[in-house]
Amino acid sequence: MSVSKDDASSALYDVEATERRSRTLFGYGLASPYLLLWGALWIVAGAADALSTANPGIVWGVVDIVGLLGTAYLIVRHARRCGEPGDRVRLLRYAGSTAVLAAFMGLTLMIFAPISGGKVLMFFTLLVAAGYAIAGCWIGLRYAVVGVALGGLAVGVFVLVPAHLHLIVPLAGGGALILGGVWMRRT
Amino acid sequence: MSAPDEIVHQSTRLKIMSALNALPRREMLEFVRLKAITGATDGNLGSHLTTLEKTGYVTVVKDFVGKRPRTRVRITAPGRRAFQSHVAYLRDILESEGAGV
């Protein structure tokens, strides 16, 4: 068997393109449960906030804690599935990242205080949307689609029906994350 | 210089092996996803998978999820070695001819 330089070059191009596509689709499959988890929790939090008389801070706090614990579980499962050792190191990195994000959000809200609940919700939503859009620029187009859809929906609600922001943004945002998660799970 | 592998070199089989090699060890790829990645038809993909399975380069696992049949494919250790050796052979061709220019 003899392979020419052109054939070798073309075959290597195919190998690299196929490996890249395979890794991207595998990554979508891994990301899917995170989107499904947070999408569902967002809808639950939005509905509970709208329907109950409990303090919104408590509702969102409980949902955030459930989401953070669920995310920790998914991180460990993800690492084991990929055969990567070091659960403890991964969880420490996750805890560090969460602490940085919480500090950033807390300090930003403190700087801009007083700020309405609706604007806090919009800020968090747009931050998440921007995160997905940026991820889309680097690791896969589908993240960008989710980010743009999420941001677009939130801004649309903010402009068109601001009176129902507290209910519609979590429902639409959670729905967008769930749809994104299902899309990433499929081919 | 590494040796060429005629089984791996065929275009669709090279794509199948590339897609599987990119995954972590023990991880499987569903037939549907493999079809999307390689751009092959059902029959073509099935035929090449049979060739690779007979050579011992991949393992094909068939089961059911509820009532739906599911086919998943995993690269074997000899398959990964053969693929990596063939890719090294292709790189050698480019480097050796490039060095001579």
Description:
Chain A has one domain. Chain A contains six helices and no strands. Chain A has helices at residues 5-51, 56-81, 87-112, 117-138, 141-160, 165-185. In chain A, helix 4 runs antiparallel to helix 5 (141-160). Chain A is elongated, with a radius of gyration of 20 Å. Chain A starts with a helix and ends with a helix. Helices cover 60% and strands 18% of the residues of chain B. Chain B has a three-stranded antiparallel sheet. Chain B is of the alpha+beta class and 101 residues long. Chain B is elongated. Chain B contains five helices and three strands. At the A-B interface, helix 1 of A face helix 2, helix 3 and helix 5 of B.
Strand content of chain B: 15-25%
Low-confidence stretches of chain B: none
Query: What percentage of residues of chain B falls in helices of 4 or more residues?
Result: 55-70%
Task: Write down the domain tally of chain B.
Answer: 1
Largest sheet of chain B: 3 strands, antiparallel
Largest interface: A-B, 24 and 29 residues
User: How many individual helices of chain B?
Assistant: 5
What radius of gyration of chain A results from the CA coordinates? 20 Å
CATH architecture title of chain B: Orthogonal Bundle
Helix content class of chain A: over 70%
Element-level helix/strand string of chain B: HHEHHEEH
* Content-based structural category of chain A: mainly alpha
Going across the biggest sheet of chain B, name each strand in turn: 1-3-2
Low-confidence stretches of chain A: none
Termini gap of chain A: 36 Å
Task: Estimate nothing, just give the exact number of structural domains of chain A.
Answer: 1
Based on DSSP secondary structure assignment, what is the total number of beta strands of chain A? 0
